[in-house]
Amino acid sequence: MNMQQIETELQNICRRRHLSIATEKTYRHWIRRFARYCHANPGTDRQARITAYLTHLAKNRQVAAGTQSVALNAIKFLYAEIIGEPMGDVAQFARSTRPKRLPVVLSRADTLAVINQIHGTKWIMVSLLYASGLRMAEMLKLRVMDIDLQRLTVTVRNGKGAKDRVTMLPTFLVKPLQTHIESIRRLHNNDLAAGYGEAWMPGALARKYPSAVYQFGWQFLFPASKISEDPRDKTQHRRHHLHASAVSKTIKQAALSARIDKKISAHTFRHCFATHLLEAGADIRTVQELLGHANLETTMIYTHVTTTGAISTPSPMELPANVHPLRAAG
Questions:
Q1: Known catalytic residue: 270?
Q2: Residue 326: pLDDT above 60?
Q3: Cα angle at 76 between 75 and 80, to 5 degrees?
Q4: What is the C-alpha to C-alpha distance for residues 55 and 162, in angstroms, rounded to an integer?
Q5: Could you say which of 135, 141, 239, 276 is catalytic?
Q6: 223 and 262 share a domain?
Q7: pLDDT recorded at residue 22
């Protein structure tokens, strides 16, 4: 198979298996890089080429462990799903080290200081990241029907691990969301009048419920400003959701304005959500459910950064003593 045939088959399999467009692009990227490496380094068998390439990524390119794992997954997909031949044993490649890093967490005051630098729709979006513990992709993919303003819930559909879950919606977001939903209702009506208004729907739902694609409940909660070409079907033009980069840039600028020197991202607000709940006395099993973690060990990482655990222990310099060995700086 040549590269064009491989990419065509990659697209067909990803669409048939309902993989995300991001996964499809990532696999295409790493398969191309692997193909270029093989072209530049011929003369070895398949197993040796794969082992050498993964070692090259770790030693020469110094990629992170997660990046190396993504490359390996793409190569596995290439041989198992596209070529249909065994990849062989590649367990002996040099592995990138995965450092055990703690999440960056802000105090509640600093978290709110960053959010208060943001206005309009972006303020609602970033508030949901913190108040509901959402991942960036989960927040962007929310539909109007996923918000229940009476029961104060947010339903996350097809989240990480293809799982659904329900998380909290704070009362202070009800009125802003009501106003926002009415504004996108008007936008949707304008799209319908212009001959658009069709929402992208996962799987075969569009064929099963052909009229549902025009229903307001299926529209993205945070729609893009313009109608654009569908990346899956170049013949379709739809209003997709806002791009993640727009939110990330807003957060970065807000952190600078709030004079927060820590390196933060959209995911930092999810870390803050979990940590602040634990500090407030929430049960760790409840936090695990709200975050959608499959394993409790994943949630346990936040116990290492709370101010109610080991960190709350007083320093020996602060312990009472009859004679203090240090003098105050004068």
A1: yes
A2: no
A3: 120
A4: 31
A5: 135
A6: yes
A7: 86
Q: In angstroms, how far is CA 18 from the centroid of its own chain?
A: 18
Catalytic: 28?
A: no
Interval 220-234 mean pLDDT: 85
Domain shared by 109 and 226, yes or no: yes
135 catalytic residue (yes or no): yes
Answer yes or no: do 55 and 201 share one domain: no
Residues 168 and 132 in one domain: yes
Residues 11-28: tens digit of each pLDDT: 999 888 878 888 999 999
- The encoded tokens of residue 111 equal 């978290």
Catalytic residue among 238, 270, 271, 276: 270
Q: How far apart are CA 124 and CA 247, in angstroms?
A: 11
Does residue 123 sit in the same domain as residue 195? yes
229/185 same-domain check: yes
**Contact by Cβ (8 Å): 96, 63:** yes
Task: Choose the catalytic residue: 28, 95, 160, 237.
Answer: 160
In this structure, is residue 210 part of a structural domain? yes
Distance from C-alpha of 256 to C-alpha of 2, rounded to nearest angstrom: 48
The listed range with the strongest mean pLDDT (10-19, 43-52, 127-136) is 127-136
Mean pLDDT of the chain: 89
Instruction: Supply the CATH number for residue 77's domain.
Output: 1.10.150.130
Q: Which of 49, 180, 188, 293 is catalytic?
A: 293
Please report the pLDDT score of residue 170 as a whole number.
94
Residues 6 or more apart from 305 whose CB is under 8 A from it?
102, 103, 105, 271, 275, 311
pLDDT of residue 330: 46
Domain with 65, as residue range(s), is 3-83
- Residue 140: CB partners within 8 Å, gap ≥ 6? 220, 222, 241, 242, 244, 247
Give catalytic status of residue 302 as yes or no: yes
